[in-house]
Automatic annotation (TrEMBL):
Its cofactor is pyridoxal 5'-phosphate. The gene is lysA. The keyword Electron transport does not apply. HAMAP family: LysA. The keyword Ribonucleoprotein does not apply. Pyridoxal 5'-phosphate binds at G213, E246, I247, G248, R249, Y343. GO terms for biological process: lysine biosynthetic process via diaminopimelate. This is Diaminopimelate decarboxylase. Belongs to the Orn/Lys/Arg decarboxylase class-II family. LysA subfamily. Homodimer.
Length: 386
């Protein structure tokens, strides 16, 4: 890997997100195989990574997509994902977006609320409606990415879903569940599904979207065990005619690395700081959720020291890791941040007038392909009017 990363830095410069096609294919295959014996439509959550070249790889494996709006739909169109495999999500859908999705023949929508149904979906159209129910189940994950408790902004109560079913049962095709992200235990998924099945049975709802949230190993946690997940969910899922899921992190995270350069190594009275080109502008997860990402210095000749790896931006929340043991690098050394393929580039921003990294794909045969150019400073203000 070391030579590969050095080679990429030589050719494309840094910072750069690097994705390995073989890892991506392996992860996607795992997801696809879980319920392969059922009528199963796996979809990829575009919010986790919207690079059309990567989406295209998944499209070729048969994946559909979960999108939030026009931007993510465009990424899917560029990737060649057919609209009849696309699911439209969101808790703030507008009338104009609805028209746009209908015009573009998007097949499925997850209706987030009772109010959304009444505002947008009472009349006939060709989109299949799934009601997003909130099962009030604790996914035991970070509070910002937990979505299935009553207090969260997502979904409708079972009572509200039932009210809609009583009046509009012929308009409603299925239920949708998404209780959170980075969930590593099977039980919350099982409980949420079984609770929802009770209502599905009563109204003869035969389609279900079980959402995403399949957790990975960043540090000491265990990855969600897909064999156990299958075993626990299968008896209930067998009662449905169509099963959809929406997976982001599990597919993308381990396939992606942020490769960036050390710009300064500084010692204060209490700490050693390794300053890199990238901070919360290129990978916001540590700053936003206190998330852990393993970091490696490519040149391991320096002594191991406890350091903070920080970005160059103007606030103390701008860090990639705190108090980690690292071979002390020198200015100009390369470091890689691991498990950065999901919610890495897709959440990158231009804070402090910085530009976004390039993205490079390492293909199965080892060859390299630039799949997004590094943003140029001149592009930053192209939409401003002075
Ligand atoms: N379906 C819905 C409706 C979602 O809201 C999400 C993620 C997914 C599927 C995909 O979840 P996944 O399989 O990736 O866990 N930015 C956060 C994660 C936010 C997740 C948002 N929704 C992070 O970096 O951890």
């Amino acid at each position: 890997m070391k030579e590969k990363f050095e080679n990429i830095a030589d050719i494309y410069g840094t910072p750069v997100y690097v994705y390995f096609e073989d890892i991506l294919l392996k992860r996607a295959k795992k997801v696809k195989e879980v319920f392969e014996d059922l009528n199963f439509l796996p979809t990829v959550a575009v919010k986790a990574n919207n690079n059309p070249a990567l989406l295209k790889i998944l499209e070729e494996m048969g994946f559909g997509a979960d999108i939030l709006g026009e931007g993510e739909l465009l990424a899917c169109t560029l990737a060649g994902i057919s609209p009849d495999k696309i699911v439209w999500n969101g808790n703030g859908k507008t009338f104009e977006q609805k028209e746009y999705m209908i015009k573009n023949k998007v097949k499925y929508v997850n209706v987030d609320s009772f109010e959304e149904f009444n505002y947008l979906w009472k009349e006939e159209n060709n989109i299949e409606l799934f009601l997003r129910v909130n099962p009030d189940i604790d996914a035991k994950t970070h509070p910002y990415i937990s979505t299935g408790l009553k207090k969260h902004k997502f979904g409708m109560s079972f009572t509200q879903a039932e009210d809609l079913l009583k009046k509009y049962s012929e308009r409603i095709s299925g239920f949708h569940l998404h209780i959170g992200s980075q969930i590593t235990e099977v039980l919350p998924f099982k409980e949420a599904l079984e609770k929802t099945y009770e209502l599905a049975k009563k109204y003869n709802i035969r389609k279900i979207n079980i959402g995403g949230g399949w957790g990975i190993k960043y540090k000491s946690e265990n990855e969600l065990d897909l064999n156990i997940l299958r075993k626990e969910l299968l008896p209930t899922l067998k009662n449905f005619d169509l099963i959809i899921n929406e997976i982001g992190r599990f597919i993308f995270a381990p396939a992606g690395f942020l490769l960036t350069k050390v710009v300064m190594v500084k010692k204060t009275e209490t700490k050693t700081f390794v300053v890199t080109e990238s901070g919360m502008n290129h990978l916001i997860r540590p700053a936003l959720y206190g998330a852990y990402h393993e970091i490696e210095v490519l040149d391991k000749s320096g002594p191991v020291e406890k350091v903070d790896v920080v970005g160059p931006l103007c606030e103390s929340g701008d860090f990639l890791a705190k108090d980690i043991e690292l071979n002390l690098p020198k200015i100009g050394d390369l470091i890689v941040v691991k498990n950065a393929g999901a919610y890495g580039f897709s959440m990158a921003n231009n804070y402090n007038g910085t530009t976004q990294p390039a993205e490079v794909l390492v293909k199965k045969d080892g060859s390299l392909k630039l799949i997004r150019k590094k943003q140029k400073v001149e592009e930053l203000f192209s939409s401003c009017i002075i």
